[in-house]
Write a structure and sequence with these properties.
The chain is elongated. The protein is mainly α. The protein starts with a helix and ends in an 8-residue tail after the last helix. It has two domains: about 60 residues; about 40 residues. It has four helices and no strands.
């Protein structure tokens, strides 16, 4: 439903932009200021809502989306570190086994 509304508004705006009077009005300095203020207001509202959600989540002791993303990054780092340690452990085991099997074999005798 929202997509249909958005598409209809965009289509209407495109039709309106084809009108010379609308183009003059949109390009006027006064309209530019109004549009700029509208964009600023929209960004301020978005930031205020984001801040309010963060504060509410903190007060309710609930994780935010940012908290979850941070935890995911940390978990990914830890998983890579664990895998590296496993790989290193496996390499060391192989070296130890090679060393142990080499020590059990008697040295080859050389004839003089």
């Amino acid at each position: 439903m929202f997509k249909k509304l958005k598409d209809a508004a965009l289509e209407g705006a495109m039709k309106a932009m084809g009108n010379d009077q609308v183009q003059k009005m949109v390009n006027s300095p006064e309209m530019q200021k109004i549009m700029f203020r509208a964009l600023q207001t929209g960004m301020k509202v978005k930031n205020d809502v984001t801040d309010a959600r963060r504060v509410l989540a903190e007060r309710m002791n609930v994780a935010t989306g940012d908290d979850l993303e941070d935890l995911k990054r940390k978990l990914d780092r830890l998983e890579r570190k664990v895998q590296n340690l496993r790989d290193e452990n496996e390499t060391l085991k192989e070296k130890l086994e090679d060393t142990e099997t080499g020590a059990e074999e008697p040295p080859a005798e050389t004839e003089v």
